[in-house]
Structure to design on (469 residues):
């Protein structure tokens, strides 16, 4: 596999097919390979076939035919302009649409001290003034003395992953920086004794260059840390005589002007809901700050059928991974976890405030009618007063990010769940035929503790805690 990439790996993403998770289909003469993942009834291919340029079209057709025999359709993702032209010349009847743009540089021409890179220069200088320094990490440092250094890098990766709004994506953007370390270049950003950023570059053999695949910084790293990482790696590529560098595709960039039909434009506009999870526009602006010499398009391509909703959905599933439900739950958890502590505290205080008039109402109504016995009414009043005090205390702990807030949240959630169950039983036993205002009163008594249980359980799961220093 590595030999094929060294001979024919022209696409910027070609090295990525060595990372975990891919299936491989080899040409009969083993002089070509197609790397793909399964997504429903589709085989989603990473880029174009890796082989000689003259064989690309025929190998693509052969793979599509073999996939059809296995009752699978095929979509090629991230095909660059040159590969698309070769496929069009050799196949003719294919469908394609632009799904993003890739910035590219010739390192020999890169320099920071030009007017066009004024903003970039300011960011690099800002990081340096904050004490950030970047150094090249040689692969043998990871291989021969992996302990503290590897752990330091992994802490950067873990903190970066934890800060993401959406779940972890797979396929062509999976985070696997330590596979084939001897073939990669690594750069580490440090401030004092702390590692705060990391860049891993993979080779693009056919273009004598590098793809800066992973550019990562911890959430509280000084502004300009990522820029300093890339700037340092670009200067290193320049000193090594490399001829090509890219930061990879900016997804969903430059779509509508190049979409070839109203149908494709509609499909791609529908895909923009992903921008609620990922800041694609911000990513493109960040890459543009480096003033690339050119932007090249990345295409989604089908050979045996038109691009439709099923092809777009299969591509999305390839990036999400096989466990869609787990991805959705993880994304929701991450989104909720980004809610600031003071807002959780405000919500808890609001719940406590609503409990005050509710508790007075419980003490005022006819206990024999609504609860079956006055003693039960008194027990509910005492319970709600205690819950109100508990919520106010919890709000204070959450606002201060105290670790005890989580177990207290779970305790109160259990109490509210018991409240919901008992209220439901009581309502079915005493007020099954209640209507109008009476029915609304009963419904409020059931839904209130259910909502409180959900809020408290969520806080127990994601409430922010003060970091240890």
């Amino acid at each position: 596999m590595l030999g094929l990439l060294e001979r024919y790996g022209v696409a910027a993403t070609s090295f990525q097919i060595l990372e975990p998770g891919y299936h491989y289909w080899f040409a009969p003469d083993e002089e070509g390979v197609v790397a793909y993942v399964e997504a429903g009834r589709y085989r989603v291919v990473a880029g174009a076939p890796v082989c000689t340029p003259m064989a690309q079209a025929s190998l693509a057709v052969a793979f599509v035919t073999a996939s059809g025999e296995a009752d699978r359709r095929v979509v090629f993702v991230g095909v660059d302009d040159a590969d698309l032209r070769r496929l069009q010349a050799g196949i003719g009847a294919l469908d394609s649409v632009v799904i993003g743009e890739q910035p590219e540089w010739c390192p020999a021409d890169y320099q920071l001290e030009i007017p066009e890179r004024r903003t970039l220069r300011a960011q690099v200088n800002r990081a340096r003034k904050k004490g950030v320094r970047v150094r090249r990490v040689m692969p043998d440092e990871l291989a021969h003395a992996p302990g503290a250094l590897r752990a330091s890098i992994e802490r950067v990766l873990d903190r970066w992953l934890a800060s993401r709004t959406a779940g972890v994506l797979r396929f062509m953007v999976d985070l696997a920086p330590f596979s084939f370390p001897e073939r990669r270049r690594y750069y580490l950003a440090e401030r004092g004794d702390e590692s705060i950023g990391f860049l891993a570059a993979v080779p693009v053999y056919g273009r004598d260059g590098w793809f800066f695949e992973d550019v990562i910084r911890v959430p509280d790293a000084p502004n300009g840390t990522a820029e300093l990482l890339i700037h340092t790696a670009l200067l290193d590529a320049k000193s090594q005589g490399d001829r090509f560098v890219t930061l990879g595709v900016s997804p969903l960039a430059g779509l509508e002007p190049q979409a070839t039909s109203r149908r494709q434009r509609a499909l791609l506009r529908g895909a923009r809901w992903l921008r609620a999870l990922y800041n694609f526009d911000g990513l493109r602006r960040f890459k543009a700050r480096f003033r690339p010499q050119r932007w090249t398009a990345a295409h989604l391509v089908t050979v045996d059928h038109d691009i439709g909703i099923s092809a777009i959905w299969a591509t999305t599933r390839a990036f999400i991974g096989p466990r869609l439900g787990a991805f959705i739950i993880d994304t929701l958890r991450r989104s909720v976890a980004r809610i600031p502590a003071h807002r959780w505290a405000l919500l808890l205080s609001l719940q406590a405030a609503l409990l005050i008039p509710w508790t007075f109402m419980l003490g005022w109504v006819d206990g024999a009618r609504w609860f079956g016995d006055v003693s039960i009414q008194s027990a509910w009043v005492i319970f709600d007063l205690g819950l109100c005090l508990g919520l106010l205390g919890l709000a204070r702990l959450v606002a201060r990010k105290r670790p005890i807030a989580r177990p207290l949240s779970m305790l109160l959630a259990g109490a509210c769940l018991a409240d919901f169950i008992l209220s439901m039983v009581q309502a079915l036993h005493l007020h099954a035929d209640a209507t109008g205002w009476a029915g609304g009163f009963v419904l409020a008594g059931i839904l209130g503790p259910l909502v409180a249980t959900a809020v408290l359980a969520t806080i127990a799961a994601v409430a922010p805690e003060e970091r240890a220093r």
Observations:
- The first strand starts at residue 23 and ends at 26.
- The chain has 16 helices and twelve strands.
